[in-house]
Amino acid sequence: MTGTRRATSDEVIRELTAWNPRERMAMFRRWVAGSLSIVHLHVLTVLETGGPLPMGRLADALDVSVASATGIVDRMEQRGLVERRDDDHDRRVVVVHPTAAGLRVFTDLDEQRRASLTILLQHLTERELKSFLVGLRAMRAAREAMAAEAPAMAGLPPDPVSVETALRKSKSEGHR
Q1: Residue (of 120, 116, 109, 106) closest to 28 by Cα position
Q2: Per-residue pLDDT tens listing for the chain (176 residues)
Q3: What sign does the dihedral 129-130-133-139 (CA atoms) show?
Q4: Considering the domain boundaries, does residue 11 fall inside one?
Q5: Is the domain of 43 the same as that of 103?
Q6: Is residue 100 part of a domain?
Q7: What is the residue-wise DSSP string for 78-113?
Q8: Least packed by Cβ within 10 Å: which of 87, 91, 113, 166?
Q9: pTM value?
């Protein structure tokens, strides 16, 4: 990478990740106002990505003890974000499933983000907006190309959910 390209890339990264403390605090307040902690959001993200998980595997994915995961799931279950079910093949195993309300968290966050972005984009000129769209589409294409190449290079299946599940499985098998 040339010096100019590196400097431009660094500047793009700074712009994309610039989040002043007020913006960050406002986002955290919205999450807290909805009784959703960062930990709860993490649990829902893990379940959305990998599907329902046994409590032990969820604890591994969160990098916490099973007792801690149980406490987290207790609080989330009280709020209607997840539910526990017995495993179909082994009733000793408890499987954590996201509820419709739990998955709706992502829809709600996406709607909030879209509303904020709509207001923000109104401040761009037509030319700036079109240029921004070209750049975003190029980034998406590059991201998709990288995602398609990475699993093959690591010997993993190409499906992103399969990749996440395979990584989680190899991590949990490594701990035993």
Answers
A1: 109
A2: 778 888 888 888 888 777 777 877 777 777 666 667 889 989 999 999 989 999 999 999 999 999 999 999 999 999 999 999 999 899 899 999 999 999 998 888 888 888 888 998 999 999 999 999 999 999 999 989 988 887 766 665 555 555 455 555 555 544 43
A3: negative
A4: no
A5: yes
A6: yes
A7: HTTSEEEEE-SS-TT-EEEEE-HHHHHHHHHHHHHH
A8: 91
A9: 0.64
